[in-house]
Structures are given as C-alpha cells and as structure tokens.
Amino acid sequence: MPGVVIVGAGQAGLEAAAALRTQGYAAPIALIGDEPHAPYQRPPLSKEYLLGKQSADHLPLRAPVYYEKHSIALRMGETVTALDRPARLVHTGKGEIHYDKLVLATGAHNRLLAVPGAERVLYLRTRDEADAIKGRIARSSHIAVIGGGFIGLEIAAAARIMGKQVTVIEALPRLMARAVPPLLSDFFLDAHRREGTEVILDATVQEITKNSVVLTGGRSVTADWVVAGVGVIPNVDLAYSAGLSVGNGIVVDEFLRTSDPDIYAVGDCADHPNPFASGRARLESVQNAVDQAKCAARGIMGSPAPYRDVPWFWTDQFGIRFQMAGLSGGHDQTVLRGKIEDRKFSVFFFKQGRLLAVDSVNRFGDHVAARKLLTAGTRLTPQQAGDETVDLKTLRAGG
Amino acid sequence: MPNVTYIAHTGESQTIDVPIGMVVMEGAVRNGIDGIVAECGGACMCATCHVYVDEAWLSLLDPIGEEQEEMLGTTAAERKPNSRLSCQIPMRADLDGLIVRMPDRQT
Ligand SMILES: Cc1cc2nc3c(=O)[nH]c(=O)nc-3n(C[C@H](O)[C@H](O)[C@H](O)COP(=O)(O)OP(=O)(O)OC[C@H]3O[C@@H](n4cnc5c(N)ncnc54)[C@H](O)[C@@H]3O)c2cc1C
Ligand code: FES
User: Fold this and answer.
1) What is the Cα–Cα distance from A4 to A154, expressed in whole angstroms?
2) Model confidence pLDDT, tens digit, residues A340-372
3) Sequence-ordered list of residues with C-beta below 8 angstroms from that of A300, at least 6 positions apart, any chain
4) Which of A104, A197, B41, B92 is deepest in the core (most CB within 10 A)?
5) Between chains, do B43 and A312 touch, taking CB under 8 Å as contact?
6) Ligand 2, atom nearest to B88 Cα
7) CA neighbours within 13 Å on the CB side: how many for A176?
8) What is the pLDDT of residue A397?
9) What is the mean pLDDT of each run of 10 residues along chain A (399 residues)?
10) Hey, are the CB atoms on A69 and B43 less than 8 Å from each other?
11) pLDDT by residue (tens digit) across A288-318?
12) How far apart are CA A271 and CA A252, in angstroms?
C-alpha cells in the first residue's frame, strides 16, 4: 500500500505527518526533506538560538524515537526532483516512491540581493545558516543588516544585544512596512534606535564591498559583513513542472487541495483562500504551517473541513513581545488601546466597523482575547476596542 | 539529573531525566511522549503543552506569569487550579521527581 508522501520536512511537513497519525491514518507515511537535519523549529534561529540562550538541542520538533514509534519514514538529505502524476510517483535523487496522496510542504527560500558584491551576503533560513551567522557575529564588530522586516530586525537586535555595532538598511520609508501600520513602524524604529542601532530608511544598496555597504547617492556604511532579510520566494518549481496551478505559491482551494485533488499543499508554499484576508493569501508562520497541516490531514482522512483558523504570529526584539492576531490588510480604521509610552498597547484594525486584526505590544491579554473574538466572530465595536473599561474577555459571540 | 514523571490521561506513566535548564515540555517532546504537543515550540503562544501539576509540587513552582496566565485561558482541556504550560516550567534541582498529568487532548 503506497500511503502518503510528504515533500519537505519543515514544520508544515512534520505536522502533516503527525496530524495524520493523530487522526488515525494507518498506511505508510514518507516524509522527505533535502536538509541534513530532522525537522526543527525556525523561529529560535533569529532569537534565542542566535543569542546563544538556547543550544541546538532545543531545535528539533520531535525526537528520533517519535518517527519510529509512529512509523513515519523520515528521509532526510533527499531531494524530490520530479512528480509523475499519472503514475502517482515522486522521483528523488535516490529512487522513486508511489503515493495515494501527496502533500507538498516545500516552504520558501530567501530572496537574494542582486547587486555587485552580493556574494558576500549571508541570509537566514536554515539551521546551518544560523550557525554561520552566529560565528560571524562573534568575530565582527560592525554588522550591516539589509532589510527592516521581522527577521532582519530580530538579527539586528540579537547582534546589538551581543554588543556589536549594527546598521539596519531599509529600502522603504518605514520598518516592517508590509506587515504593520506606521504607528508600529515608528514604535520599533524608536526601540531599535534607543538601543543604539543605526537605522537608515529609504535607502537602496548599490554595492557591497569587503568592508562596507555603498548606498545609492554615495553614502557608505562600514560593515565587517552583511546579512540580508529581504523576503522569501515560495518553492513552487516542483509543482509548476508537474503542471499544477501556481500563483503567489502553489494554488490550493479552501481544503488545501491543488489543481490535482490527490495533491495538497501546506505552509509557506501555499497560495490559499483565507477568510481573514480579502481573498487569497500566502502566510509565513508557525500557526499557518501547523493548522494547514491538520486541515490537509482531515481531507486525506476523508472528512474535509475548510481552512478557517485565525492567523497569529509573534516576534521578539529587545525583550518587546509583539503578537499579531488576524490579518490587517484592507483595514479602514485603527483604534489604539493602552498607551504607546507605557510600551504596552494594542492596535485594533477594522474594516467597515468589523474587526480584522489586533497587533499587541506586551499586551498578552489583548492578543488572547483577539484570537478568541476572531475565532468566534464576536462583534467588537471600535468604541469598545478603545475603551479600557470594556473587558474584551466577557464579550459574547453574536453580541 | 532530575527526573520528571509524565502520566498520560490513560494512566500510562513514563519517568524521564530532564536536564536542568531544559523545560518540562522539552523533556516530553524530546522523548516522544505524545501527550504534549508544543506547536509553538515553547514561545507561550499555543497552549498545546498543557499539564496538570501534581499537588505536592505546586508550591515549588514559580508564580504563573502574565503571559502564561492568558494562554492558560485557551487550553483545549479544562483549566484547573493546577494547570500549567509545561514550556514555562524550567527544570531545577529541587523539582527532581516532579509529576505532571497530561490532559486527554491538547488541540
Ligand atoms: C529565522 C526565522 C524566524 C522565524 N520566526 C517566526 C516567528 O517568530 N513566528 C512565526 O510564526 N513564524 C516564524 N518564522 C516562519 C516559520 O518558521 C515558517 O513559516 C515555517 O517554518 C514554515 O514551515 P514550512 O514547513 O511551510 O516551510 P519550511 O520551513 O521552509 O520547510 C520546507 C522544507 O522543505 C524542503 N524542500 C523544499 N523543496 C524540497 C524538495 N523538492 N525535496 C525535498 N525537500 C524540499 C526545504 O529545504 C525545507 O526544509 C520564522 C522563519 C525564519 C526563517
Ligand atoms: S509550547 Fe506553545 S505554549 Fe507551550
């Protein structure tokens, strides 16, 4: 009996295998990944692990005994090179494997800079890259970080905490512009500058030399070495070559099925309809990897239910805990709860009076309440959101 | 090395050495104990590492932090006074012998 083959042994692939076993799937499962390390967590790579607060022992998502106990054939260091859909077969460098159902959990790879000297730049996605960056931080005094998104800023914060001089170079006029509103960009700009990080906005990189980053306009930033976090590109080649529909990722329906109903796609690689977005979305988060894996497993088990989980995400920078619930894209109104000066506040996003998302800085209660409100579809008015005397936890669904 | 006894809702029990500095959640995940899921990897974001701490040990634990308190409000199984998130319990020498019971479900 062929069973399920999962391509990509990141968090989404691992969780798909785990969810299948939890839901009672009894046929074989093969989990194939091209990295050398068994499935591990990525979030600590730019946080605790980079800071040396956590050793490599903490990274694996499961122990080796787990795979044995649950008969999951983990095949690391193996690349899936092609899909043969008519024959229901995947080809790898080491042979071929038959499947009944296939799960694509191929994730994403880093967008690379294309400027002279770009070969000197490091990027962070994998454990090996984290080790390389850790080594470089230790041996250098001035680091340039290109890209003021979550990962760039987490690396910048870690390097600063380790006492290095840090310059962040961002092309847009504000930090994390894709993900947060100006108020939060300003808050994090201030937080990084207060800690002594130099942040240059609106700056494009022209060239990277042995000891500097040259910006358009001629300004030069001294740097022993350079790391970039300028976004990722979903890994769609395999799907595309097999004739599956591809857009901003591998295109799937609300049950996470690709244009071939026996093939699912989950995690960072999946371009999916998301009820919290105004249409389709491709999310890069632990929540999305885990919940999509469970959703695809339900489909494979023959009890499909649409993917409807509330998106959530977190980032830690200089001890500031920033948590997001929902998706704020398309909002037409924001409401502040709490005070920015206290470094404890939330921003509530509304569209035509309906709650879309909540971004919280050190306000755990708001974040948890937001997840519950969004899950239940409970009505919250902008007035209630801004009124701290209103207890968000006692609001009732349909109320 | 201090040890922790993990008791599944079915009654099955496993005693595991958990090094100091590691959290109780990791002792389970690293040894293939299924009753603790830990989707967020210990970031206090998921509440799928929920355990009931044996009463005898409760007073030794650190007070529940604000973040854990909020996440404990989202556990899949019933929250009880001895509910804790096992990713928020770092192993210490004086916790040697700790007993935790795992709920029937984490999600
Ligand atoms: C540094 C960093 C920090 C992060 N921090 C956070 C955070 O704080 N909070 C949060 O929610 N999210 C965070 N994320 C995002 C989160 O880690 C990802 O969304 C999640 O790991 C996605 O899982 P995935 O399995 O879809 O993709 P991936 O983790 O990319 O896994 C896909 C795997 O498939 C392999 N693969 C691809 N093609 C093939 C093939 N043909 N054959 C075999 N193997 C293949 C890849 O090499 C990879 O190992 C962070 C990510 C990074 C990189
Ligand atoms: S592991 Fe997610 S809250 Fe403990």
Assistant:
1) 36
2) 999 999 999 999 999 999 999 999 999 999 999
3) A4, A20, A25, A101, A103, A264
4) A104
5) no
6) 4
7) 22
8) 61
9) 95 98 97 98 96 91 94 98 98 96 98 97 98 95 97 97 97 96 97 98 97 96 96 98 98 98 98 95 98 98 97 95 96 97 97 97 96 95 96 75
10) no
11) 999 999 999 999 999 999 999 999 999 999 9
12) 6
What CATH code is assigned to B3-101? 3.10.20.30
> pTM for the full model?
0.97
- Residue A195, token pair as written in the block: 């800690």
H or E stretch covering A199: strand A198-200
**In the numeric block, which tokens belong to residue A169?**
């170079």
Q: Classify residue A203: in a domain, yes or no.
A: yes
Torsion over CA: A46, A50, A52, A58 (sign): positive
H or E segment and range at residue B57: helix B55-58
Indicate the residue of B26, B43, B70 with minimum beta-carbon distance to A365. Answer: B70
Residue type, A102: L
Contact indicator for A347, A359 with CB cutoff of 8 Å? yes
Report the side by side order of strands in the sheet with A89-92.
Answer: A80-84, A89-92, A95-98
Reduce the DSSP state of residue A28 to 3 states and report it: coil
Domain presence at residue A399: no
The amino acid at residue A100 is D
